[in-house]
Amino acid sequence: MATVHRQSAGPLIEVVVADITTLEVDAIVNAANARLAGGGGVDGAIHRAAGPELIKACRALGGCPTGEARITPGFRLRARFVIHAVGPVWRGGGQNEDALLAGCYRSSLALAQEHKLASIAFSAISTGIYGFPADRAARIAVATALAGLAEVWVPERVTFCCYSEDSALKHLAALEGIG
Predict the structure, then answer these.
(1) Residues assigned a catalytic role
(2) Residue 35 backbone class (left: φ over 0; alpha: ψ -120 to 50; beta: rest)
(3) What pLDDT shows up at residue 178?
(4) Nearest-10 Cα torsion for 125, 131, 137, 141
(5) What are the 10-residue block averages of pLDDT along the chain, 179 residues in total?
(6) Across all residues in the chain, what is the average pLDDT?
(7) For residues 101 and 85, what is the distance between their CA atoms, to the nearest angstrom?
(8) Domains in the chain: ranges and CATH
(9) Helix (H) or strand (E) holding 109
(10) Dihedrals φ, ψ of 62, to 5°?
(11) Phi first, then psi: what are they for 83, rounded to 5°?
């Protein structure tokens, strides 16, 4: 799809339409459930591609609260790590959903910094079965990532990996509107 560079010195930000399980990055960010138990959508795809070791590693973590993230090895994935971010279920916008979604991105970037990861790929957290409006989620994802990167500049490359052309266009529009 398209690659977008920041205007000032700093990390590369890109938007792609791809299968996140095939990306060669240091970490992919899984749109996980609070039990980290695998499921449908991107979560199920990541668990299938990583192999049975991933569910064992997730069980050992004991879950993750909404708005936060946890990290495991990537096992059979090309990515060295999986960051499991638990996004909010959309309940109309009055249940702190925006802040919880932003927390997923901040927590994921903090883990990337802590583990000195040079590249990270985000799935479109909460926009599938959790029902978060995709355009709103894209704006939150981009704004939160750019704010975090402005402070730290780690990782050096951030990819928004979208499952559809429509999702990618929403992320690109968010980048153009903010960047």
Answers:
(1) 43
(2) alpha
(3) 73
(4) -10
(5) 55 92 98 94 96 97 98 98 98 98 97 96 96 97 91 84 95 86
(6) 93
(7) 9
(8) 19-177 (3.40.220.10)
(9) helix 97-114
(10) 75, 25
(11) -100, 120
Q: What is the pLDDT of residues 105-157, one digit of tens each?
A: 999 999 999 999 999 999 999 999 999 999 999 999 999 999 988 877 678 89
Full DSSP string of 18-81? S-GGG--SSEEEEEE-TT----SHHHHHHHHHH-HHHHHHHHHHT---TT-EEEEE-TTSSSSE
Nearest alpha carbon to residue 121 among 17, 39, 51, 35 = 17
Measured CA angle at 32 (ends 28, 33), to 5 deg: 170
Instruction: Report how far residue 70's alpha carbon sits from residue 61's, in angstroms, rounded to the nearest whole number.
Output: 8
By residue count, the chain amounts to 179
Q: Are 119 and 23 in contact (CB under 8 A)?
A: no
